[in-house]
């Protein structure tokens, strides 16, 4: 389409302007160029130079939530919690509101800076929950990969793209051409995570130590500092679940040219960087992956077989692989499932609502949840007691603020539960 205004028009107009007008226009151009540069430099400033990093800030207060967390649960109190009100909710209308707490980036300890983490985040439907999750786990020295489901509406993908632009270059978005149509119980669940894992390994921005995978229906129970302490307590092992049982129907029919025993566990993991490189590059790991992929549609939930098989066959050579398998024993803390706080269908479910055999968490779960040692809670949905998510978000942000004010960890946090796991002691 041809321009309505001939380009020579602007040239002639500039020539006709007086010297004073020309100088004014040039000064305005220079002013806005400098102003824009300052904004960019401020956003990318080193952590230690960020304004008011060490300034103490007041704790937000939500009395009704505090009572529920303390276990003082009554029908009257539950009815007083109004959905929509929360002093911890972000302001969705600005980048500052979406990325900061009380107008500031969270304070970060030297220990955290020296131990950067990576996150794989999968999302497909709830922009606001994604925004809140990212705000809680984001630190400028970490790195993040966000995978949008290939079937997500373009309007949703556009909003996520705008959200990612609020952060620095350490938040990466999977390109549209590489997005996966994720279907629960199929290989595509694992495939989407592998796309992000590849992007994280190839990135030269940050030399992250461990990667954790998470989705928009989860909420962290740990601050970033506590996450770092937990990962360091693993002593070089990986946090990969093993579930005892007969999983013959889950095993691919493909015969592999090397000895391997298939194991099932949770798809949600925390992995060493070199374990991730191994699973993406090692010929045996790729053969195991190909066997699972070639069984598409013939075996159920193949994503739960990959990480556990690599982590519990130490002879394959995966870094940090466990030397022994241990059944979950409720009285033995060395066998705890620490990656997620989950209420399964065979346990008491306060909301009486489930999804994929997992109880949807609600307000009555909060007193137990805040005492749990796990890294994340799974799962929350906006249509089932959304106040529970609001209240847990408020609780975690108060912990983050207390870390800034005291420069110390929460007194109830104990990384010993991670250090005493069997795999933390006995691994390659």
TrEMBL record:
The keyword Nucleotide-binding is annotated on this UniProt entry: no
Pfam families for the chain: Branch
Cellular localization per UniProt: Membrane
Transmembrane regions listed in the UniProt entry: 21-39
Entry protein name: Protein xylosyltransferase
Membrane topology: Single-pass type II membrane protein
GO terms assigned for molecular function: acetylglucosaminyltransferase activity
Family: Belongs to the glycosyltransferase 14 family.
Metabolic or biological pathway, per its Swiss-Prot or TrEMBL entry: Protein modification; protein glycosylation
Source domain of life: Eukaryota
InterPro entries noted in UniProt: Glyco_trans_14
GO cellular-component term (any): membrane
